[in-house]
Write a structure and sequence with these properties.
3 helices, alpha+beta, 4-stranded antiparallel β-sheet, Chitinase A, domain 3, globular
């Protein structure tokens, strides 16, 4: 028998404003992926639980089971675009959507301890 449970986290969502990506030069497939991940980001900003959304929608098999979270990660463990976005944040903040070789992401910094961070993200792959 499977048991399901949920954990509620109560904290403020802060949004980091940056230059949004220009979608006019993107292929249709990329534009679709971008819009999908931006839609999830907007839902998080409006108060939906990012861990739940990541569990349901992220296309990152390494973090889907943990609600999109990676814990105790240091510099050099992610691609540069991911690290640049994550290390600019303060705990609780949500980044703009950014692109890596894996697809489009946005990230939320959960905690920062020196050079170690706990982050949560949603990835939508470029098809």
């Amino acid at each position: 028998m499977k048991r399901f449970f949920s954990i509620a986290f109560f904290f403020s969502i802060l949004v980091v404003q940056a230059q949004p990506l220009d979608t006019t030069a993107m292929s249709d497939d990329k534009r679709i992926a971008y819009r999908k991940v931006e839609g999830y980001r907007q839902r998080v900003i409006k108060g939906e639980n990012m861990a739940v959304l990541a569990s349901l929608y992220t296309e990152d098999p390494g973090s889907a089971k943990t609600g999109g979270a990676y814990y105790n990660m240091g510099r050099g463990q992610f691609v540069p675009e991911f690290e640049n976005a994550a290390f600019k944040l303060k705990p609780g903040e949500v980044s703009e959507v950014f692109e890596t070789a894996y697809g489009f992401h946005f990230v939320q910094l959960i905690a920062l301890r020196g050079e170690a961070m706990d982050v949560r993200h949603i990835l939508i792959k470029n098809k």
